[in-house]
Amino acid sequence: MGQHPVIKVENLWKIYNLGEVKVEALRGISFEVTAGEFIAVMGPSGSGKTTLMNILGCLDRPTQGHYFLDGQEVSKLSQNELAHVRNKKIGFVFQNFNLLPRLTALQNVELPLIYADLPPQKRKERAEEVLRSVNLAERAHHYPNQLSGGQQQRVAIARALVNDPPLILADEPTGNLDTHSSEEIMQILQKLNQQGKTIILITHERDIAEHCRRVLHFRDGQIVDNETVEQPIKAEIILSELLQEEEAVEPV
Amino acid sequence: MNLSESLHSAILSISGNKLRSFLTMLGIIIGVAAVVAMVSLGEGVTEEIVGQIGSLGSNQITILPGRSRGVPGAPVARRGGGDILEWDHYLDLEQVSFPAIKNVIAENTVSAVATYGRESVITRVVGTTPAYPEVRNFQVEVGHFFTQRDLEQAERVAVLGKTIAQDLFLSPQAALGKKIRIGGITATVVGVMEEKSTGFQDLGEQILIPITTMQKRLTGSEYLQTITVQTQKEEELDLVAKFLEVFFTNRLGDPDKFSIFNQQDVLDTINQVTGTMTLFLAAITGISLLVGGIGIMNIMLVSVTERTREIGLRKAIGARPFDILLQFVIESSLLSALGGLIGIVLGIIGSQLVARLSPYQTIISPEAAIIAFSISVGVGLFFGIYPARRASQLDPITALRYE
Ligand SMILES: Nc1ncnc2c1ncn2[C@@H]1O[C@H](COP(=O)(O)OP(=O)(O)OP(=O)(O)O)[C@@H](O)[C@H]1O
Ligand SMILES: [Mg+2]
Predict the structure, then answer these.
(1) Which chain A residues contact residue B323 at CB under 8 A?
(2) What range defines the domain where residue A198 resides?
(3) Domain count, chain A
(4) What angle do CA B93, B99, B103 make, to 5 degrees?
(5) Which of A25, A190, A234, B110 is the most exposed place for a label (fewest CB within 10 A)?
(6) Distance from CA of A210 to the nearest CA of B (A)
(7) Which residue, among B148, B100, B99, has the nearest Cα to B128 in the 3D structure?
(8) pLDDT digit string, tens, across residues B154-200
(9) How many Å lie between the centroid of ligand 1 and the Cα of residue A174?
(10) B220 in contact with A at a CB cutoff of 8 Å?
């Protein structure tokens, strides 16, 4: 594990030109991520975390600098190649879930497979399998507005996983969730990391960041600290504690 | 993403917004329905007119005194006219050895009172010649038509129209051999014609007598109102018309003293009128489909804006610009195709209603339906492309952030 970098960023700049004002969202960022890492990105609001994530996810291009994904320079790719990379190599998880309201959970999960040109039967089987892995098999035919926030985020994670991408990018995936749901999400992410997925996660919460093994600290568009977490929190343990507390408060 | 996926997603989006989809399609629906119904009415009326003209006998050229101006076949102002065509002209044409000419008939029509016993009717009396049934494709039902001998002898014989026979004698059989008064003369009924209508008048309301009888005993005038020539074949109409032009110019000394109506010209005129009508319909359709298309474009633009986030999400999970383009183009084409189909169904229903409620028959034209449908799909495609392109060019981050 970790022989070659999945992500290599060199002197990355992102400058938003708003006419009179220029916003320097990223100011010369360089770092590497090796395969199988689990990284948290922290930093004050407006420090450039989402901007970086969008560039890493091939949704946006840097103003200056180089970004190598799997050894390939992203700025050299065409629109269609970028779409292919987003489809196959990256799984996105958003703070606000971004599920399509008119599709069922299962159909939402199937969506990336449609763009991967998988035949319908295979699609369904694969989507069901992934939904099962996030413990939502019985909710497959529910619509997003019939699901809780935590369940919706699990559907979104299933969607990010369905094409089996090596890299998962999560922008504040627990930002809209309570502690319990957050821990469930972190448990899934930790499990995925153990299975070998590289995960980068943005969070505002120290508790969440400490589930990861490395924390990048952002300030004003720069990485100001690269912290290693000696003993990452195990979501599994927290969850069982939470369950005990809940049972203590409301004995059945 | 393949076609069936795009289709599925388009169906989902259209059925998710039924009222709006219907209103969007309305322009197309009305346009296509109007075309289908109106063309069917136009074809029905044309068929009826052409059929009636054909039922009056085929391959005819009619010579009239006086010069008519304007479109042949249409009622027009006449210059000159009156006493120009002579009995001799008829006889000479009968005699002429021109193989293209099959039959020649002369006709004079007057109004007269016909009386039998205490029954009397005011009616048209047509003096004509023995070839009349063949030329007019109008046969005797009982008895026989008057003969060449009757014509030469100016016999007092009459062939009744069926309506008149029924009015005066209750049945055609009862009329045979009876003597009736027509104007100033008494004539023996030798036959009764079959039932027939030109669509403009009931031919059963006329009495046919030898034209010589009419000239000598009823009107005293030697002149003819019309001469009709029948050719062997349709292709010979123009040739015979030219011959007649020369013949009568020679006889009358002036081409302006008579007019020649070629049956073909009349049919051509009708087809020309129908063609103009079709063009007019096409213009109306074009405009309504254009309006429908703009409606579709408008809604598609709204739809793209509404679904900005969806587009951003689809792009983030791997949709190529072309996938997005296809999705929206298919949606707009499907809308217009659906509108076209509904329009065709409504048009057919409408034309059935017209056929039932009006005196006109209607003929559904599959060509008109297919063309209208294709145009509506084309309109959906064309007006869908701009909104779809806009969607496909959206920047994923801006789209995902869109509130
Ligand atoms: N499209 C844009 N146009 C102009 N400025 C932008 C745009 N996107 C981001 N910015 C600016 O770039 C800076 C970094 O924004 P970014 O969204 O990366 O922050 P963040 O670290 O994710 O903050 P938060 O924790 O609140 O999500 C901010 O100052 C923001 O105003
Ligand atoms: Mg952010």
Answers:
(1) 83, 115
(2) 7-249
(3) 1
(4) 50
(5) A234
(6) 28
(7) B148
(8) 999 999 999 999 888 888 899 999 999 998 899 999 999 998 877 66
(9) 19
(10) no
